[in-house]
Amino acid sequence: MLRKSLLAAACATIATTAYAHDEKPLAEAPAGAPYVKVSDVLPLPEFIPGLGTLYVDPATLPAGPFLAYDRDGQLSATVYMTPLEDLQNGVSFDGLHIGSHSVATTDIYYNAGHPGVDVPHAHVVLFHDEGAKARLAE
What is the CATH number of the domain that holds 68? Predict the structure, then answer.
């Protein structure tokens, strides 16, 4: 019962944080300042299959959020990249923003590292609508 209560409290906190910003300016690419296009600052392709075109506020690295846009420039997902070593050492990534208040599905998976987040980390991907995952895969 305590576990369910803690989960409910955590969800309420996340929901409060999520609604604390205006999502409309982020709905279409390019994301405005302070976000930068990841492919402009790192040796990564402009469109990464499965993640799309990514924008990030450099001050929020490594966790993000990374805003993921489909080929039509529509915000399709919010991605977090949390280093496994940090999580194992008790580091918390609190108050992370989201690109959109709507979340249809979530994927969490391991990544061995890539430019920008060179260490092993977890990708947490919040897809903002039912078709988002398919659009980002193309």
Answer: 3.30.200.270
Q: Which domain holds residue 50?
A: 2-137
Does residue 92 have a pLDDT over 90?
yes
Q: What is the pTM of this model?
A: 0.82
| Bridge partners for 55 per DSSP | 37, 67
What region, left, alpha or beta, does residue 104 occupy, with left being phi > 0 and alpha being psi -120 to 50 degrees? alpha
Strand partners, 127: 77, 105
Residue the block writes with tokens 């092993």: 120
**pLDDT tens, residue by residue, 15-56:** 333 334 567 889 999 999 999 999 999 999 999 999 999 999
Three-state secondary-structure class, residue 28? strand
CB proximity list for 46: less than 8 A, separation 6 or greater: 37, 39, 53
Work out how many domains the chain is built from and give that number.
Answer: 1
